[in-house]
Amino acid sequence: MTYDILRDSGISDLKSYMDSLPEKQATTLAYWIHDYTRFLKQEASFDPKKLIRYKRGSVIKVHLGYKIGSEEGGLHYAVVINKTPALSDKVLTVIPLISIKPNTDLGKLHYSKINLGNELHSMLNQKLTDHITKKRELQAKVLETMRSIGDSVQKGELQLIAAGVNQQLQTLQSHIAQAQKMQKEINRMRSGSIALVGQITTVSKIRIYDPLYPADVLSNIRLSDKSMDQLDAKLIELFTKNI
C-alpha cells in the first residue's frame, strides 16, 4: 500500500471509531490526538537540557496518553524512580499516582498499589505556606521602602529608592502569581494519593506538563525516602525473581 492509501484508510477508521463512541469518550480521544500531534511537532526541536533536573522521588504531572483497557491514561501525577537521571536524558521511568476517592477501601487495595497517604498534598500545602510567608515579608519591605521616600529630598536618592521599590514590586507580583497557581493545584487535588506500582512506565520528557522550570508548582516536590523505600520493595515483589 502507498502512504496516501494508508493515511486515508487510517483517518477513515479513526473517524468511524470516534463517531461510534459516547460524546465524552470521543472528546477525550480528540483531545489526546491534538496533544499527541503537538508532542510529535515538538520532538525535532526538543532539548531536555533546557528543563530542570528531575531526581529520584520527584513528583511530576505528565500526560500518559489515551487509555486502553485497564491502563491509566490522561494527565496524572507520577513519581520519578530513576536512580540518577541525567539532565540530557530524554525519557524518565515513572510510577503513576491516583487520588484516594471517597469510596476507596484502603484496606482492600490491589496488591500492586501502595497508599502514600496525604504526603504529596501536605508538601504542596507547605510550599504554599512558605510562599505566603515570603509574600508578606516582601509586602512589609515594600511599605518600609516607600515610607523612606518621604525622608529623601535629593533627586538621586529618590530615583534609587524608586528603582528599588519597582524591583521589590516585581518580585512580590511573582510570588503572588506563584501562590495562586499553587492554590489552584491544591484545590484540584484530593488529600490522599495511591501509587500504581504495577503500571510503572517510561515516558518522554516531552509529555511533562509540570515542573519544567524552577518556578513551576511541582518544582522541588519529592517523596520522602520512606515512601520511595516502599515503592522499591513493591517493585522487587512484583517484577523480580524471589531468591
Characterise the protein shown here.
The structure is a single chain. α3 runs antiparallel to α4 (155-188). Among the domains are: 1-45; 123-188. 49% of the residues lie in helices and 15% in strands. Strands 1, 2, 3, 4, 5, 6 and 7 form a 7-stranded antiparallel beta sheet that branches. It is α+β, with helices and mostly antiparallel strands. The model has no long low-confidence stretch (mean pLDDT 86). The longest helix is centred in the C-terminal third of the chain and has 34 residues, at 155-188. The chain has helices at residues 3-20, 23-43, 119-149, 155-188, 225-239; strands at 59-63, 75-80, 91-99, 113-117, 193-196, 201-204, 208-210.
Kindly estimate the percentage of residues that lie in beta strands according to DSSP. Answer: 5-15%
Quickly count the helices: 5
For the biggest sheet, the summary is: 7 strands, antiparallel
Mean model confidence by pLDDT: 86
What's the alpha carbon Rg, rounded to whole Å? Answer: 24 Å
Structural class: alpha+beta
SSE arrangement, N to C: HHEEEEHHEEEH
Low-confidence stretches: none
The shape is globular
For this entry, what is the oligomeric state of its chains? single chain
Distance between the termini: 51 Å
Number of strands: 7
Q: Portion of residues in helices?
A: 40-55%
